[in-house]
Amino acid sequence: MKNPAGMQDRLIEESTIKQKAIRQLEALFQAKGYQPIETPMFETLATYEKAFGKVDANQLFTLVDQEGTLCALRMDMTVPIARVVSTKLEGPLTKVYYAADTFHKKAQYSGLVAQSTDVGIEAFGEVDDDQIIQLAIEALKCLKLDARLELSDSRFLNRACQLLGLDETSKRRLIHLVDTKNCVALKEVCAHLPEQAKTFFSVLPLIGDELDQLKRVCFDEQLLELVTYYEQIQARYQVAVDLSKCPHQDYYTGLIFEAFVPGIGASILSGGRYDELAGRFGKSLSACGFAIKIDRCLAVLKEVQA
Amino acid sequence: MSLAIALTKGRLEKQTVALLDQLGYGVEALKNKSRALVLQDSRYDLSYFLVKGHDACTYVHHGVADIGIVGKDTLYESSADYYELLDLGIGRCQFVLAGLANPLEKVGHLVIGTKYPKVTKDYFQRLGKEVDIIKIEGSVELGPLLGLCDGIVDIMETGTTLKENGLKVYDTVCPISARLIVNKASFKLKKPEIMKLIHDLERGVYAQAN
Fold first, then answer.
1. What are the distances in angstroms from CA B130 to CA B108, B110, B113, B136?
2. What is the spatial order of strands in the sheet that B93-99 belongs to?
3. Backbone angles phi, psi at A302, to 5 degrees
4. CB contact, 8 Å: A295 with chain B?
5. Measured between CB atoms, does A265 come within 8 Å of chain B?
6. Inter-chain contact B187–A181, Cβ cutoff 8 Å?
7. Which positions 43-82 of B are in contact with A (Cβ < 8 Å)?
8. How far apart (Å, rounded) are the C-alpha atoms in residues A241 and A286?
9. Mutating which of B83, B90, B186 best tests the A interface, going by the most A Cβ atoms within 10 A?
10. Chain A: residue nearest B87 by CA?
11. pLDDT tens-digit profile of A142-172?
């Protein structure tokens, strides 16, 4: 007998480390006033379509429910929770946490795993960015991970591209090139831009933390305001900033962030602000949250917790 | 922090090693074709290993290599996740459309043979032409000669192989050269080391171009 493709067993040693880490995080979230929540293992495809506009069905594990409605194993917890909070919960402030398995199809023979336990929080209502950033820092600290938390903002790159008056296709291409730091292709595209924009887009991908330098090349008031905002947060929490990133979920509306740990080739924590998602399910509520991909951390957790 | 670099074996290998050598990197082990699989730089805190291009992308995606030196032809076909930071200006050649007769002028069902289905698909999509693509692993020139397909999309360096087989180039699809790619997490965690390497290589590329 074999495992389904892309799926893994967790044997005793790894499972012990993982469960301990989950309990530590849950204790932290509870102490900060978050409450547990559970949603079904799969959602109707319509729920994801409502959240994303269009879904790539190739990335989802699809199935049908008892009535024949097309469904998908949940690919994240943010969308299901936004659905629940928007349709079933009352009150101005909802703060929930979860540790739940999510599913994402990966390319065959890529060595990537299709199932991931996400441990995270979502806060709906009046919550400021600072609270969420602080909690993310504490969560990483509670796992004793020597992590680099890096902030960005979904509005920054979007605004900069909008100012150029590009058509939708060119705009999306430019955003993609900056986001993947494709300095080679970017150089060609920049050649056709006005002088100020040319300077801005050619330094943006590599500028990272040097926000005073970034300020000098901003060619718009709103861009400048955003840089100043993140400069202050950077000073308050000693976190990293890279404003050249764009979110990989289209529901983010402001702050986005990721965390990286030496020895792990992908981000282990991601999150951000998504003020319009609950509204897509009927109740307008601002929101912010994050999740830790706990399975990715296991090798490092084994070392630091030993 | 130490950097692990995946170099592409074969066509690009010699030029990459020469470039590093010229910049003062300690690449003796690479030049001497040592039997070891992972080779240390004798001057800097770097290690190199030689793999096939597509595997270099895989190693970088997983973060096992921080950096990869890979041909753009391979990157076009890869779905791995990475930052593409520098054009090394070496291994220059191009993708072309070739055939016995001009495939673009064929009326009706068009069949193209190629080792590079993604590049071919994108190219014909840009032209707004419908096409059936057959993946061929090597000696692609045979396809049109034996009647498997109407034309091919392939890498052309000098054009000799095409000419010897009576095939003509009808269009240039896109240029290719070697690129430096970086694992996303590595870029965040080892930025000073990575930027130093990039600045050095940039200097080398500039010197070669002038």
1. 9, 7, 14, 19
2. B132-135, B111-114, B151-156, B93-99, B168-176
3. -60, -40
4. no
5. yes
6. yes
7. 58, 61-64, 79, 81-82
8. 23
9. B83
10. A184
11. 999 999 999 999 999 999 999 998 888 889 9
Cβ–Cβ contact A240 with B under 8 A: yes
Q: Bridge partners of B155?
A: B95
Structure tokens given for B167:
């095939």
For the stretch B72-121, pLDDT in tens is 999 999 988 999 999 999 999 999 999 999 999 998 899 999 999 999 99
Q: Indicate the residue of B79, B82, B183 with minimum beta-carbon distance to A107.
A: B79
Residues 6+ apart with CB under 8 A from B78: B54, B57
CA distance A63 to chain B (A): 26
For A143, which DSSP code? T
Q: CA–CA separation, A121 vs B179, rounded Å?
A: 40
**Which one, of A252, A266, A189, A301, lies nearest residue A52 by Cα?**
A252
In whole angstroms, what is the distance from residue B10 CA to residue B12 CA? 6
Q: Say which residue the tokens 């500028």 belong to.
A: A207
Residue (of A68, A71, A79) closest to A42 by Cα position: A71
Query: 10 Å Cβ neighbour count for B87?
Result: 20
Which amino acid is residue A130, in one-letter code? Answer: D
Q: Do B84 and A208 touch (CB under 8 A)?
A: no
How many other β-carbons are positioned within 10 Å of the β-carbon of residue A26?
16
The structure tokens listed for A177 are 């090139």
For residue B153, the model assigns a pLDDT of 97
Global confidence as pTM: 0.88
Return the exposure string of A239-274: e unless at least 16 CB atoms fall within 10 Å of the residue's CB, then b: bbbbbbbbbebebbbbbbbbbbbbebbbbbbbbbbb
When pLDDT is averaged across residues A188-212 and rounded to a whole number, the result is: 92
The tokens 């009352």 sit on which residue?
A90
> How far is the C-alpha of A38 from the C-alpha of A27, rounded, in Å?
17
Q: How far is B72 from chain A (nearest CA, A)?
A: 11
For B157, the token pair is: 């360096």
Q: Are B174 and B92 in contact (CB under 8 A)?
A: no
Local confidence band at A250 (pLDDT 50, 70, 90 cut-offs): confident
Q: Which two tokens stand for residue B54?
A: 């597509």
